[in-house]
Design a protein that fits this description.
Elements (H helix, E strand, L loop, with lengths): L1 E6 L8 E7 L4 E8 L3 H8 L4 E5 L6 H12 L10 H9 L2 H10 L11 H17 L12 E3 L2 H7 L13 H14 L3 E2 L4 H6 L1 H17 L11 H7 L17
Parallel strand pairs: 1-4, 3-6, 4-5
Antiparallel strand pairs: 1-2, 2-3
Length: 250
């Protein structure tokens, strides 16, 4: 089984891609590349059994409706809603609120933060995948799933803060050490050094591990009352089992 992880940025320079090959005896990190352009990403994603992309797959439905209303000059703020609550409803997707409720972490707002630039690139990539015949479902049931490495790390009991601080390679190294200790069946091989100097590379590996969890049904799917929003806004795959649950079965 081939699981891919993409740490997607607005530009290729900060985008990382990891290939994880799963066999009966373990999992090997086959390759990790930084500086990935759209062509490389699409070609790789078309070869994956499951891929996790660290980027919002869509925008909040109320935000989309707000922009459409603004264009026609018909913006209407509900009288019973305070400004802050109304803006929060525009800034956060349903999946963002679910992640906060379950992990205490709040993903960056795709409609009110710089991650929106990466989301524009992601939308184009997903469209290219669909045109190439690879099933795309923003709720995660297709080949690709939206992931959030910090949430996966926290749910797996691994360090999830501080490892991205500029110049703090010690914190990043401690995360890699913790990952190797928690998953002795994971062989980083020659990619170990890159993961210790690039948090983009490490996040791509975590994204691929989360993709493996989604492939095995070990992530939380949207419920009946959530599926409509998830198919439009995207849905972050949160692991529902310990990292040990991804151990290959002999």
């Amino acid at each position: 089984m081939l699981a891919l992880g993409v740490d997607l940025a607005a530009e290729a320079a900060n985008t990382a891609l990891a290939w994880l090959e799963w066999g009966p005896d373990g999992c090997s990190v086959r390759e990790v590349h930084c500086g990935c352009d759209d062509e490389m990403l699409v070609d790789a994603l078309l070869s994956a059994d499951k891929a996790g992309i660290d980027c919002p797959f869509g925008w909040p439905v109320p935000f989309v409706e707000f922009v459409a209303a603004h264009r026609s000059g018909n913006v209407d703020v509900p009288a019973a809603t305070r400004g802050r609550d109304w803006r929060r409803n525009l800034a956060l997707r349903l999946t963002d609120r679910v992640v906060h409720d379950r992990t205490g972490l709040t993903p960056l707002s795709v409609s009110a933060d710089r991650i929106g630039h990466a989301a524009m690139r992601c939308a184009a990539l997903l469209a290219r995948l669909a045109r190439a015949g690879s099933p795309v479902d923003r709720s995660g049931s297709g080949v690709v799933a939206e992931v959030y490495p910090a949430a996966s790390l926290k749910l797996w009991g691994l360090p999830h803060r501080g490892y991205k601080r500029p110049g703090d390679l010690a914190a990043l190294g401690r995360l890699v050490d913790a990952l190797r200790e928690a998953a002795p069946w994971l062989d980083l091989g020659a990619c170990d050094a890159l993961c210790r100097r690039s948090h983009d590379a490490t996040d791509a590996v975590i994204a691929a591990l989360t993709a493996r969890a989604a492939y095995r049904g070990l992530t939380a799917a949207p419920g009946p009352g959530e599926i409509e929003a998830a198919t439009s806004e995207g849905w972050i795959a949160l692991p529902t089992s310990p990292l040990a649950g991804l151990r290959p079965r002999a």
